[in-house]
């Protein structure tokens, strides 16, 4: 038996269960996506403000950049020779926007989430996390020395039960509560005001909140749910990514200056990885600045989101969303795959999401809205959805 058989067998079994992951070659063109010569409306994109597909912005940016600024590699970690002025300028812009708090940049949101918690946590740290946090935070928790319990999704009463159970335990010096603001699979959100109120009652508690799906989309200046609910100063570790609404790449942390310095000294993915190319930093700063003025687009996205949530519930589907990420919960995996296929044939690029990504019986179609989608698109989609539910 070849050593490869072990892996080939597992791939066969994934394929058999209809769970084999594959790259599909797709071309994106504005609001459209082409897969195998079939054009569909892209309802699976993270480009929530349509900025990544805005070629005018790209032209404007490159017109501003002299060739000397078009540096495509930093050639080292920021701790060696890779700390270009572009990093410090972007961190300053973030700091200015986020009420003067310190800012630290990372190569990606994944780097950020697998690096921060292992650096900050020792065996005397307890992590309490929402059950549905993103894989990157789960990996970060696993790499850390902390003890770890999960509370039921968005159930802050359960969180408080765990806190009252463990807060008095001398084994723990600190308790870090880890959550997302807008959740990537359910599109629902944590009540950040309530979370901050809980923190104020427990002296050992620090909050870690991932705004990957909220940055650019929430708050008057697009700074996320923390801005929307006026709790920027109360969240100890406020993180997010530039890879979604901000049309770029990278992660950021807003924190106390002590934490920033501590991470520069202890966070392995920051210390031991070549920093992003300076040109990317300059682009992120360009977009970060533009994005703050797009409140009209944010309001438009909000209205469209509310419309589709209502319409989906009116059709009789469960839909936990309160955001632009709108799952249509079908339940059974095969029925979900069939429905996704029907909608794709009808011209809507919507992906089915099944276990193990979501709990058993919770298979769903995941619709991601962006500002290039309009009311008529939603009306057309709902027509097809009603039609296909009638057929099955
Ligand atoms: C996408 C995502 C990340 C990863 O960010 P990248 O910049 O793509 O690596 C982290 N957390 C959450 C909640 C995400 O949705």
- Output the number of helix runs: 14
Give the CA-CA distance, first to last residue. 45 Å
Q: What string gives the helices and strands in order? A: HEEEHHEHEHEHEHEHEEHHHHEHEEEH
Largest sheet: number of strands, sense, barrel closure: 7 strands, mixed
Based on DSSP secondary structure assignment, what is the total number of beta strands? 14
Task: Give the overall shape.
Answer: globular
- The H-level CATH homologous superfamily of the largest domain, spelled out, is Type I PLP-dependent aspartate aminotransferase-like (Major domain)
Radius of gyration: 22 Å
What CATH first level of the largest domain would be assigned? Alpha Beta
Widest sheet: strand ordering: 4-10-9-8-7-5-6
Examine the secondary-structure arrangement and name the CATH architecture of the largest domain.
3-Layer(aba) Sandwich
Number of domains: 2
Approximate strand percentage: 15-25%
Fraction in helix: 40-55%
Low-pLDDT windows of residues: none
Structural class computed from helices and strand pairing = alpha/beta
Ligand set: pyridoxal-5'-phosphate
Mean pLDDT: 96
| CATH topology descriptor of the largest domain | Aspartate Aminotransferase, domain 2
How would you sum up this structure, described in words?
It catalyses: 6-carboxyhexanoyl-[ACP] + L-alanine + H(+) = (8S)-8-amino-7-oxononanoate + holo-[ACP] + CO2. The protein is an alpha/beta fold and 392 residues long. It has two domains: 17-49 and 294-390, Alpha-Beta Complex (Aspartate Aminotransferase, domain 1); 60-291, Type I PLP-dependent aspartate aminotransferase-like (Major domain) (Aspartate Aminotransferase, domain 2, 3-Layer(aba) Sandwich). Helix content is 41%, strand content 18%. It is built from 14 helices and 14 strands. Helix 3 (85-97) packs parallel to helix 11 (278-291) and helix 4 (109-120) runs parallel beside helix 5 (135-143). The longest helix has 20 residues, at 295-314. The model has no long low-confidence stretch (mean pLDDT 96). It binds pyridoxal-5'-phosphate. Pyridoxal-5'-phosphate is lined by residues 108-110, 113, 134, 136, 180, 184, 210, 212-213, 241, 243, 251.
